[in-house]
Amino acid sequence: MLAARLYDSGPPRRLVLESIPDPAPRRGEVVVAVRAAGLCGTDLEMLDGLRLPPEVPWPIVPGHEVAGEVAAAGEDAGPWRPGDRVVVHPYVACGRCRSCLDGRQSACLAPELIGLTRLGGFAEKIAVPGVNLFRLPEGVPYTVGAILPDAVATPYHALVTRGELAPGQSVAIFGAGGVGTHGVLFAKMLGAHPVVVVVRRPAVAGRLRALGATVVVADAATNPVREIRRLTGGLGADLSVDFVGRSETVRACIGATRIGGRVVLVGVADEPLALPGSSYLVRREVELRAAFGATPQEIDVVIGLVASGRLDLSRSVSRERPLARIHEAVAILRDRPPDVVRVVLTMDAATTG
Ligand SMILES: [Zn+2]
Ligand SMILES: [Zn+2]
Q1: How far is the CA of 323 from the centre of ligand 2 (A)?
Q2: What is the pLDDT confidence band of residue 273, given thresholds at 50, 70 and 90?
Q3: Rounded to an integer, what distance in angstroms lies between the CA atom of residue 8 and that of residue 48?
Q4: What are the chain's domains?
Q5: For 189-225, how does the pLDDT look when each residue is reduced to its tens digit (9 = 90+)?
């Protein structure tokens, strides 16, 4: 089968399209014929030299946003039958550690990650544990299914579960890539007001306003903290969520939060965080929380919201490219055209079936 493999040669690392053996399902596993695989900012960072854990088996087949059709099921792999339309949860939790037993599967102490420590979805087929599959309802395209567990369920976990956002509350969102943009969709869906999103590039403002957000472009002339306070009657936001992970945005995120409000950190960056002084945090009684990934229960909810029509993702898949043109897809991700929310690779049923 065709796969894109990332080699740790160089720098730079190299992404090579090549033919590798088809996977066979082991006990508990299902082989999925991939129909769509989303590209994520993390894939670009991996390509650009992101430090990775030593247990990563090179070369990596990246791709952790995967949807497709069941091709074969191994022994004890659950209810899956060839032809079933499925979405893959990329996070393989052990199911036995204390975090898993506490219902925090996304904080599993011994996880495997599809597209990092396991072969990912930039390939025509992928072998995954049956328990990592979710049924993709008819009527939801594979391209949309692919982005649900990561780019959509992650902000759901951040805003709804960790952020406890309630109708009528104000929310400030820092960063509007694929994940942050879906955060805006959830905030609107929940009836938050105002939904303020802070971005760097004026060019992305249009597509965010179209979703109903109030956009603050943080430039030399605009202090986002002052703007958010102005937009929230001088108080600050009930909930602020950072999808960037750098000191500058995290500090602004905290400053933009009302006294006693909640700050949820989602974005990660390769730099230590410099936070405001302790007296500032203590006096404001701001609650600092962090959020990572999503649980299987949350992915079920997100799939249901899309299937019901309540969550409209029709503008989320901005570009599609066949796997054979993955380098073009990577170039789009690198250029970040302002209208792009997600870039998704597609695999033809004729070649993978
Ligand atoms: Zn991702
Ligand atoms: Zn675990």
Answers
A1: 32
A2: very high
A3: 10
A4: 2-150+294-352 (3.90.180.10), 164-290 (3.40.50.720)
A5: 999 999 999 999 999 999 999 999 999 999 999 999 9
349 Cα to the center of ligand 2, angstroms: 34
Give mean pLDDT, residues 300-326.
96
Q: How confident is the model at residue 16 (pLDDT cuts 50, 70, 90)?
A: very high
What rounded mean pLDDT belongs to the chain? 94
Six-digit token string for 156 = 């759901």
Nearest-ligand number for the alpha carbon of 40? 1
pTM of the model: 0.92
List of residues 6+ apart from 122 with CB closer than 8 A: 3, 4, 37, 61, 62, 63, 115, 323, 326, 345
Residue 113 phi/psi, 5-degree rounding, is -120, 120
Is residue 351 over pLDDT 60?
no
Nearest ligand to the CA of 293 is: 1
Residue 60 to residue 20: CA distance in whole angstroms: 12
